[in-house]
Amino acid sequence: MPFISDNFLLSTAAAQRLYRSHAAALPICDFHNHLPARDIASDRRFTNLAEAWLEGDHYKWRAMRANGVPERYCTGDAPPYEKFLAWARTVPQTLRNPLYHWTHLELSRYFGIVELLDEQSAPSIWQRANQFLQSADFSARGILKKFNVTVVGTTDDPADSLEDHLRIRDSGFATRVLPGFRPDNALRLQQPLEFNRWVERLAAVSKIRIRRFSDFLRALESRHDFFHEHGCRLSDHGLERCPVGPCTESEAAKVFDLSHRGKSPSAAAAERFSGFMMLFLGRLDAEKGWTKQLHLGAYRNANSRMLSLLGRDTGFDAMGDFPQVIALAQYLDRLDCKNQLPKMIVYNLNPADNYAFASLIGSFQDGSSAGKIQLGSAWWFLDNKEGIEAQLNALSNCGLLSRFVGMVTDSRSFLSFPRHEYFRRVLCNLLGAEIEFGVLPDDEALISGMIHAACYGNASGLFESFPAASSIPAAKSKRKK
Asked: Per-domain residue ranges for the chain?
């Protein structure tokens, strides 16, 4: 029997029945990922398995480094087959790491390959997978069709032109590929050189000359309007924690002016500035009916030497241990007090905070819409069987699993869509075991409705419940030009 069997992760008859009858065939709404829109616009064809599988995948790079693989075979200039061999030698060492599950799920679901990957099987697997990749069914768009992906939500900077999204839209491609507004660069004043280069890009794309803080806010609002007109319905922020103690607009202007002149503000001043900006951006999201995503708790760029050599997002981040709850509560409360609290998905990276986040979220459900404030799916270092179960348990015990928006890949790879299957199997296994133990009723109609909602229905509702962009008047800036 192959390792990835029909009953993989499904330990009871009830779990197997629930998965096969109600979860397996559902479409995928992958509303948050880091897939390059240009790859979908150009319908990229992958030359080989290393290109499709290892390019940009810092999960695999971390495992390879831990296995003693030199950097040349991770992010460096080694030939593609040598990089693949380095990964194949690493895979047997990843037992009990989710990478072992993901690797063999992906080989099975994309290429029908059921052998375990190791150094001996690598040459045959390389050859067979590469033959599949030559087919049009394995282009970027072909993969989205193959896995029945109805929505792709990319992650885009406000200064991005969205030209690739326009090309996708105009092509008539069936999968909805929608931009996500990620304004993290607007908060990075403590690196004035990088910040001012980004402000120049923002000015160019918005066609607003940015000389003062009011111009900066107007340019961001203009881009927010532009993203909305092109289908964006979600924003996203990658933060250590919510900033505390927001300052006034006049104080924020002084901090902006300091950085704009090339001087780095203090950490305290930068945090107060970020607090002001997060309220400003929250108001924009609320006005347009967007859902705001907060990814909280990552300690990024822990290795400064490797940051200088390779840059961001190369696998040198960690789980943070930041005080989260009070700062998050104050942020939600400030927005709520002004009736400017948008729909929100809050992703937690430290399992110690699961119940704290889940209980806090319940304090800001206001009855205006079901599941207005969400505990987001287990992500990054928690995107594994244990982490998924822990998130589901905290959410269930403190809120409504039936209103959960479910899984996202949060990935840069087109070979990551089986992570939705992984989540669905874990969910059905959890529910199936509780049915057999008598903790849940053996009522398939009741349970199946929750499975459908958590695996697809609630996520698709993030977009289907909103009116078309053309029917919503763009928010008018109240700022003087």
From this structure: 45-138, 147-471
